[in-house]
Specification:
heterodimer, A: 345 residues, two-stranded antiparallel sheet, B: 318 residues, mainly alpha, ABC transporter involved in vitamin B12 uptake, BtuC, two-stranded antiparallel ribbon, 14 helices
Chain lengths: 345, 318
Amino acid sequence: MNRAQRLARHALFWPATTLALLLLVCALFNPSFLGIAWQNGHLYGNLVDILNRAAPLMIVSMGMTLVIAVRGLDISVGAVVAIAATVAALMIGGSFSASGDVASRFPLWIALVTALGVAAACGMWNGLLVVKAGMQPIVATLILMVAGRGIAQLLTGGQIITVYYAPFYALGNGFLLGIPVALWIAAALWGLLHLVLSRSALGLFIRAIGGNPEAARVAGVRSSAITLCVYTFCGLAAGVAGLIISSNVKSADANNAGQLLELDAILAVTLGGTALTGGRFTLAGTVIGALIIQTLTSMIYSLGVPPEVNLVVKAALVFAVMLLQSAEFRALVMRPVRNPRAGAA
Amino acid sequence: MNRRLLPLAVTMLLFVGMAVFGAIRYDGFLSPQVFLNLLIDNAFLCVVAVGMTFVILSGGIDLSVGAVIALTTMISAALLNAGWNPFAAMAVVLLFGALFGAAQGFLIQRFALAPFIVTLAGMFLARGCCYLISTESIPINDATYASIAQARIPVGLDASLTVGALIALLVVAAGMRIAHATEFGRTVYAIGGGESSARLMGLPVSTTKIGVYLLSGLCAALGGVVMTFYMLSGYSLHAVGLELDAIAAVVIGGTLLAGGVGYVAGTLFGVLILGIIQTLIAFDGTLSSWWTRIVVGALLLLFCLLQRLFEGRTRRTA
């Protein structure tokens, strides 16, 4: 096997190539697309914008990656985003005042910790249904997906809750050392996960559970506890994303916050090369997957293509990627190449 | 009693219980028209849920149905405004729905792809195509559609049904027949019970799997036609999230999401239970609409736990 072949076999080859191609197309149509400038004390440019906007999706997708790695699925993340955003907005609240200095109802850190705690509890609820009640993951999380938004609307009384407390805005709009705060959070989470998964046996255990749950259990992996933790983490990640999203729009909309986010997250995970059948996962791939989705959206806006086309392009992309991931499809396409005689006969 | 009928019996009891509760609590609840309205207002959901039942019985899932409904209403509206014969337009959208479903089934079957992802992409595609046709709502002024929409079929006791509700009942009857009295239906159950065993038995697994998604696509398109009668407009945001309601109706109707166990008749009751929850909330007047979601979620939980219990018991006796 030569170097090129080995490169093509690398898990991140296809996701990274797709992302690079998308960026190349953008750059071809709009040469200034890739430009990065320093403006008003922070980085500025389309690439920074893509990274910033993709941050909540990256965070949710990282949690989703681990859930999928243990043969699970969490379709409730959008609802958890709405719940976390609602809890935070209700606890911070504040009302409009002309002077601009508005007090938070509870100290900011208590509000944030409570929102994250509620989100983690949602994730744990999913995990308990999967592990203890033995439900299929898609059904277990469907329950929270259906009821979750109802609960969030119950909390807000069906209203959109606006937050007037300025320090809360920093999460979704602020910059630290010239880089968006949301991006710092995503990077920190990735770093933490990377450290935990590669420096401890946890990554190995997760792969073992996803590869063969029964064999992992027999081999002494505490699969129930680990699976429960993974679902809890996924809920927590959705909570973090919910805080960033609500901070970004300075309000919480129980009905629309995180709408369809579960599908985008699953898509990001798939695009990144994580197998939906469990066992094989790549966090870096997931981050690239999230970036692909956001780049696609930004590209469509920046090329002046009507946004209506966005979904069709997304669909085409999903079809292409899932076919590429299918061993049967690759066999079908490669057969005539590898063995031309057999095809002719 | 046959153990497999237990979830169905629970569903029916629950429906009767809710009806009795409504009748005692609210004046005017116990009128035939209130109950027929359950069917009239949820006719499209019922049609879609029957198709979904087959998909779930086979062990798969179809997330594209809501988007296919929206696309059907859009295509119908666009064709009618272009001066097409209304019945030709209906035939075209039904054919389209069947082809759309079959294409998804082909991808799932031929390339061993996850139904979840394929139909998710199908959902994006169908919604996206809606936006390509128009981002605005398209009103339908066709005389035939309007007269079908307004037609009332008297069923006695001062009560009446709409054409959509009648179609829904026919679809349920046809679904029951297909599921229990045809080779296709029995093969669907066999695949849901165990795909490799079904294959080893020599059953036509591949064509049946494609057929299941074809049927679901056809039902979604028919549901779209029924919705077009109901709404008299085509709109890309029609039936957002309907796939979840359909899945919920199927699960509440006692069908196991793992596949292989369930009844089309149960799905009818699942749809009626979703309908009666909304009716109860509307009759109450003080409860907000989001209670619907919470109650549906709680019911889903109840039924899933019940199913787990029931599954555990059969396994122990086996």
